[in-house]
Amino acid sequence: MVASVAGGVKPASIIDIEQRFYRQLIAGQQREQGSMPLAAELEELVFKLEVEREAAMQRLEKKQQAQALIDNIRNQLVKTLLGELDNHIAMPQLFLKDSAISNKQLLLLELISSSQLDLNRLRPVVADIPWLGRDLITIVNSPAFVAKRPQGSDIQVNDLKLVLNYIGMDQLRLYIPYYLCRHWLSANPSLVWVNRKVWRYLQLQAVAARALAQLHQQDGILLYSVALMQQLGMSLLLGVAANIYERLRHTWRREAMAQRDGELHDAVSVCQFPLEQLWPIIATHSANLCWQVPSALGFADAAPIKLLRERASSVAFSSLSDTAKILDKSACYAKCLLLEELQQLSFSDKKLLFTYYELSEQEQIRLSGQNFRKTEPV
């Protein structure tokens, strides 16, 4: 019975397991350790907002009918948010305006997927993305990187041309998608904990995809990049929704202050970002947004975007190209790792997933030998 599901139209049993995984990823327990460091100012802001929310909750608890007011405000906020988010999804330019993605970033990903790329073409594009240039400069001047330089080369390097030369083309093809995809995870305080989980999931996929690509003698760096992009739609949706939500809350709090309504102000303040209610929209739209957003920016023909579109458009694993199959297999393996950590994956479920995605014994051995604790690009 299990063998009969291999590769065909995805059966309900597989869909159920994957839906359980994504629901846990988005709306499950939020506070957990992750490999996505927080900027000091963001960590301070998150702490401040939690303190303010707790203080507002304590004030409301002293009032009669406070919970009814909170529930009413929360329902209104969610309804307004979902309506505005639907409008954003239906209007690409509106969606792009609120997201963290740009055509310059996608141009970089297109350039590094080309075998004809040289540093002279890459440098001006990197220079047009100041935060990325700063990240690359930080890498070159880090103690670990300085130790790899020739003797006497431990001076600080700030010239972008020298930085790119020091890193080298092969490593840039890893670093650039790594930092771009991390940047697409919104810095909104409401998303700190869920983004840590999404980022770890992406990193596990990327490590698995690169290992399988090497096993099958395919372009490991291209597949590493695309694996990091596999939740682009989810990342952008969460970021856009969080931006809309914070604007709504700011407007409503300001109006409450103007009306000198402290209870209303506190009720708005204690409402948290509604991840549970967003889940159906994410489940419906995220896969297609992975390729639709880059296509709206003019990159429909870029190799990474073609692979993302192929994955989103396919109804059966068996219909995918060999390259796209590696991406599905890497995503399957990453899901299993994370569900096992949460003790939410039975042996039979894991066997079912491995059978459907046709993970051979050789592939399983290769993946089991990877160090998934080290998820940085080098």
TrEMBL record:
<dbReference type="Pfam" id="PF08668">
    <property type="entry name" value="HDOD"/>
</dbReference>
<keyword id="KW-0175">Coiled coil</keyword>
<feature type="coiled-coil region">
    <location>
        <begin position="39"/>
        <end position="66"/>
    </location>
</feature>
<feature type="domain" description="HDOD">
    <location>
        <begin position="108"/>
        <end position="260"/>
    </location>
</feature>
<dbReference type="InterPro" id="IPR013976">
    <property type="entry name" value="HDOD"/>
</dbReference>
<protein>
    <submittedName>
        <fullName>HDOD domain-containing protein</fullName>
    </submittedName>
</protein>
